[in-house]
Amino acid sequence: MKRLKLILIFLVLSLQSFFLAAQNLKTSPEIENRIESLIQQMTLDEKIGQLHQVSGVSDLFQQQAREGKIGSFLNVRGATATNELQRIAVEESRLKIPLIFGLDVIHGYRTIFPIPLGEAASWDPELVERTSAMAAKEAAASGIHWTFAPMVDIARDPRWGRIAEGSGEDPYLGSILAAAKVRGFQGKNLSDPLTIVACPKHYVAYGGAQAGRDYHAVDISINTLREIYLPPFKAAIDAGAGTMMSAFNELNGIPASANPFTLTQILRNEWGFRGFVVSDWNSIGELLNHGIAATPAEAGTKALLAGVDMDMMGFVYSSNLAALVQQGAIDEKVIDQAVRRILRIKLQLGLFDRPYVDLQLEQSTILSNENLALALESARKSIVLLKNDKQLLPLNKSIKSLVVIGPLADNKSDPLGCWRCEGNDADVVTILEGIKSKIPSERIRYFKGCEIQGGSDKEILKAVEIAQKVDTAILVVGESEDMSGEAASRSSLDLPGHQEKLVKAIYETGTPTIVVLMNGRPLTIPWIAEKIPAILETWQLGMQCGNAIADVLFGDYNPGGKLPVTFPRTVGQVPIFYNHKNTGRPPSEEKFTSKYLDVPVTPLFPFGYGLSYTKFKFSDLKVAVEKADNITQIFASVEVQNIGDRAGDEVVQLYVQDVVASMTRPVKELKRFQRITLQPNEKKKLEFQLNANELGFYNQSMAYMVEPGVFKIWIGNSSVEGLEENLEIMD
Ligand code: BGC
Among 253, 250, 252, which residue's Cα sits nearest to residue 280? Predict the structure, then answer.
């Protein structure tokens, strides 16, 4: 009976996702007829052309586009350039099939928003949807149809530089933000000219790279794959994402770009994905290095049969598929199927009817005032106040003198972060500029003090001399933009170069010191966390960086962001994440328990943590479980009150733990959250509803199930604080 129930739950869930995915990729008899009629007219070379994506423009590529031998370009942007190439495809090629232009529109196109890890700290899906929609609008107006985003890789290892590109360590937060981004990019209807098609990446488990080294092998259990790494992809597909990118990494011995288990069994058969899969850059060619193919032909065969429809810059499909079909090694029907998926997206985007973009529209859409206002809003909401002893912050605008120090204080490039797209340094408001807009310039001193990676004692001494003479010192330190992102793994998470030395020297002057961190990953800053009274984590906030930070420094905006990722004390604790297992010997004072000799087991700053200039009180946690029509629902409510004297935001977080189960479960798992704004004294009752199905896991037979029994539930303001209750799920 129980088994039957489980099978039924599984079937319902699978059908649900099938339905969701199919519904979001709206097709129609007209679209399907058009696809079939085109396929009938296409030569084998033209079909393979649709599966071929190249980067940049050249005479050769133009000629190939004319011959119908290229289906897509990446890295060509701007209305003029894309229109010109498109003209070749739709006016000079035999079947006039339009090209699809792809680009990494990761956190803005021309108006640059915070890096994704930073924006995840806003815990605000509605905001994330709006910034994605804005990025889509600018990109679409410049001829882009397709973004290689969102990057939804869960990252539990901050050494991995690409942690900057995603939403952090948690599958639930990651899923909510993944779906928000897809909705933002794609809008309600892909055929709307100001939307672009999304491409969740990198499918899958790329963030699990051994030792945090980019492109490295991933060896994880199938449970971890299903419970940690897959959910944000599933959420993106359920939100309607039209394409998917297969990753560089191997997963348990099979490279992700030739993996039938993930690309066909899970993605297509379980989830009902109907869009197309593009490889990552030459990830099909790299199957040779992985050692699972002896020749490009073998690599191409494996990738295509596993489910990769389009070859990004690998030239493997374009050079080998025709011969493979002629030799009978690949059935042409497999190629037809990939072509069908690609043409379907082109038709859904409306490219056949509207292949060109309007130059005027490009002008009026890019960098409008509305876009800049949104860039400021998202930057402000992404800032996390890590420490504020004795309410050193916010600063009073009547402050007589202050010094701004540090290599990132007046820096116009690094705030744009990795994947800055068309972002321009000249449009960046630096922190110094932001501060100058708050108080008269005569009261502000500025001195760099050191470089991000270099410097001298002499410069530090000069900074000290200035700091001694002012009321407050603001130090802006962190990483350069190229220290995170692709191929930017670090073995140390310390502040690079002489920066910590600079901070220490300024602190020793006795002048009240504020540290503003600008970085693409969690940093190990235990000394700063202990000694410096006020610390802001500002990530890389994009174009409006300086205005947003100055607003927070001077109290024009009350910070409310929360960490989407755990900050370790030392790199030796990595991987460290909040939803870990308990072990048979949880850490305690006892010697023979799971811990370190030389460092506490706890993080420096936990997941979900962040302060405010006001205080919030949580009370009255109530939990009820109700069963009707065989569906068990959990209702939880809590009262939150602003007990400080200024308005502020709190992110109310709900966690659960399955206390006893047939397999070990994490000590806590985030299941709901909501960012709210409360006026001084205002009290709000928050209500959360969960389906008991959401409390399940994959058991030893790989069946998703909810095991009856006692669960703990917490609602609080981080992963380590909260009111606690028990609830019981009955059989
Ligand atoms: C990256 C992808 C990116 C692609 C195209 C690759 O190197 O891994 O994230 O979308 O390049 O630029």
Answer: 250
Is 47 in a helix, a strand, or coil? helix
Enter the tokens of residue 379: 């930057």
Sign of CA dihedral 328, 330, 334, 339: negative
Last residue of a domain, one of 569, 589, 604: 569
Same domain, 62 and 128: yes
Residue 586 domain-assigned (yes or no): no
- Whether 271 is in a domain gets the answer yes
DSSP designation for 429: P
Please give the single-letter amino acid code of residue 295: T
CATH code for position 695 = 2.60.40.10
Closest C-alpha residue for ligand 1 atom 12: 104
Shared-domain flag, residues 411 and 344:
no
Alpha-carbon distance 507 to 499, whole Å?
A: 12
- Between the CA of 280 and the centroid of ligand 1 the distance, in Å, is 6
> Pick from 310, 515, 290, 488: which is nearest to 393 by CA?
515
**Same domain, yes or no, for 321 and 437?**
no
What is the span of the domain harbouring residue 712? 616-729
104 lines ligand 1 (CB under 6 A): yes
| Bridge partners, 633 (sequence order) | 626, 691
Task: Please give the average per-residue pLDDT across 312-332, as a whole number.
Answer: 98
Claim to verify: residue 384 and residue 420 sit in the same structural domain: yes
Average pLDDT, the chain: 96
Percent of the chain past pLDDT 90, that is, above it, reads: 95
Q: Which residue numbers are catalytic?
A: 280
- Residue 8 pLDDT greater than 90, yes or no: no
Answer whether 486 contacts ligand 1 (Cβ < 6 A).
yes
State how far the Cα of 103 lies from the Cα of 370, in Å rounded to an integer: 23
Q: What is the pLDDT of residues 338-358, one digit of tens each?
A: 999 999 999 999 999 999 999
CB 475 within 8 A of CB 432: no
Please answer whether residues 136 and 105 qualify as being in contact, where contact means their C-beta atoms are separated by less than 8 angstroms: yes
Q: Are residues 649 and 706 in the same domain?
A: yes
Cα–Cα distance between 454 and 498 in angstroms, integer?
6
C-alpha count within 13 angstroms, C-beta hemisphere, residue 229: 25
Query: What is the whole-number distance in angstroms between the Cα of residue 153 and the centre of ligand 1?
Result: 13
d(CA 681, CA 288) in angstroms, rounded, equals 64
Q: What is the CATH number of the domain that holds 538?
A: 3.40.50.1700
CB atoms within 10 A of CB 234: 24
Give how far Cα 29 sits from Cα of 26, 32, 33, 34, 35, Å.
10, 5, 6, 8, 10
Report how far ligand 1's centroid is from the alpha carbon of 282 (Å). Answer: 10
| 304 and 209 inside one domain | yes
